Amino acid sequence: MIERPHYLDMLKPWKDKDVIKVITGVRRCGKSTLMELWKRYLQEQEGIDARHIIHINLELLENEPLLEYHALHNEILSRCADDAMHYVLIDEIQNVPDFQKAVDSLYVRPNIDLYITGSNANLLGGTLATLLSGRYTEISMLPLSFAEYLTTPTNTGMSQQRRWSNYIHDGSFPAVNELDGNDNLIHDYLDGVLNTILIKDVSQRINANASLLRTLVVYLYDNIGNLTTPRNIANTLTSMGTKVSTPTVSAYLEALESAFVLYSADRYDVKGKRILKREKKYYAVDMGLRRILCSNNVRDTGRILENIVYLELLRRDKEVFVGQGPTGEIDFVTNGPQGRRYWQVCESVNNPETLERELSSFSSIRDNYPKTLITLDDVRPTSHDGIQQVYALDWLAAGK
């Protein structure tokens, strides 16, 4: 079991607080493992009796009878031994139709501290959001960060560069670490994960065309980091022989983001301090998934680095935008606990002209918020008139 201290630390302050803890993230990113880690923490560190921890994974066949909200609700109440606090952990609750009714009833009971996980952002949409307005906190979970990946047993004893190569090749899903670098097994596992997501979390929910859905994912993964719109995507796919309308692309994009296959970054007008809604950049949840879908682009290291930096910034700062300055684009603008920051990402700036180009992206920004250039050049942290240049692998290794 891979430790996930970042997410465990996010849960700890919410123990016994009068809110539902909702953990969301792509399938197989480690939500169930986090629940196991939380159980262990409650027992070993908090001294909670095992009788007062109720953990139900709704993906297990033996729990199929509980895929009805009355049955789930009654099962949990029957296992509440006394009036002491009971910690109720429910995995993949979106598998239960009308689960909101069970959740709402469990929440109001004074002896239940409720934790639920789900693989779709719509878990917090519609009825549940209305029922629980102000009564839940969401913890958004991603597959392994590079820092987490470095701590796994299969990656000890290797150079940092070798581990980086494995990370961008095999991907960040925790179970991939158990496949001993076997390309065939990794390919089959990741393809199975993707198919499950596309069928269960997208196609069945919005009645989507599975073939078109996969074509769209391939196109977007092939073009990570490009500004685009649903209209542009529809026109491009149509010109390539896959006829699709703009409304269909918009609906599919929303569903893919809800299933955490895709993440998007809006443009942010640095001078006007407003979000520009028209164009977005899209990023992949995992580089292993991208590799099996877009084998022709496995060596576009610059885009891969940009994607991984984007995901790391999401872990650290939650809000990540593409910056639009008066004279050009800034790769990322973040608004996090430490305030606003600006980021440029480039594979290498060993060429003086490339360095000048990357630094010039910051030149039109007149405020004093920190500015950082992240590259794969293995150099010590360097300052260029206040702009910090850092080595990507060290920066990522120090992350969440």
From TrEMBL:
<dbReference type="Pfam" id="PF13635">
    <property type="entry name" value="DUF4143"/>
</dbReference>
<dbReference type="InterPro" id="IPR025420">
    <property type="entry name" value="DUF4143"/>
</dbReference>
<dbReference type="Pfam" id="PF13173">
    <property type="entry name" value="AAA_14"/>
</dbReference>
<protein>
    <submittedName>
        <fullName>ATPase</fullName>
    </submittedName>
</protein>
<dbReference type="InterPro" id="IPR027417">
    <property type="entry name" value="P-loop_NTPase"/>
</dbReference>
<feature type="domain" description="AAA">
    <location>
        <begin position="20"/>
        <end position="150"/>
    </location>
</feature>
<dbReference type="InterPro" id="IPR041682">
    <property type="entry name" value="AAA_14"/>
</dbReference>
<feature type="domain" description="DUF4143">
    <location>
        <begin position="200"/>
        <end position="341"/>
    </location>
</feature>
